[in-house]
From TrEMBL:
Residues 1-220 form the START domain. This is StAR-related lipid transfer 6. GO terms for biological process: lipid transport. InterPro entries: StARD5/6 (IPR043556), START-like_dom_sf (IPR023393), START_lipid-bd_dom (IPR002913). May be involved in the intracellular transport of sterols or other lipids. May bind cholesterol or other sterols. Gene3D superfamilies: 3.30.530.20. PANTHER family: PROTEIN CBG07384, STAR-RELATED LIPID TRANSFER PROTEIN 6. Keywords: Lipid transport, Lipid-binding, Transport. It comes from Pelobates cultripes (Western spadefoot toad).
Amino acid sequence: MDYEKIADEVSKKIYSYSQDTTGWKKLKTSRDVLVSWKSSNDYLGSMKQVCLFLSSNPRYRGEGIVEETPERIIPFLYLPEYRSKWDKALESYSIVEQVNKDTFISQSLTHSYGMGLISPREFIDLIHVKRYDGGVITTNSISVECAKCPPSTSYVRGYNNPCGYICSPLPENPAHCKFVVFIQPELGGLLPRSVVESALPNNVVGLVNDVRIGLKKYLP
């Protein structure tokens, strides 16, 4: 598997999402985080069958302001010494293979949620960090196969279609940044539609706020 080629392709996808400003439908605003969605043509998975109010496979976008610079936020998002502390959705998180300086493979094991209706999931993701002009930094990821992480009977194997974080410094206050999250997961298994519909937007809000809280608590 050509991980570097995949990393380049998913980075282009996430950048194209960041430039796409039309057709987004507001789902909710909570704790200064706006969550929107639009149909995605990038996957044909089970999400189409488990979402009541979405006409096709959804791409979720969450956005808010974070009081830090991209250079400090981005490592905080993916390095295990930080991620395992701030991300409340995860039972464990580790980097299982380094592809190159800016590209690696991670294993994420989630807690159950939705009052136990969604059992623990495992995601094996290729992650690539990319820098752009103007101080913008992104993480770009997609689920991949990895020989070091065969499927486990203890976790349902989920799949992340192109997803990532985009950190852009605010021109009026470079010490803060606009923080944007894109997710479009396939959770796998048989799930109640109502649980999925409520869980994913809430998870986006929780993630942004976990980052905000974690930065103040754990970043020196």
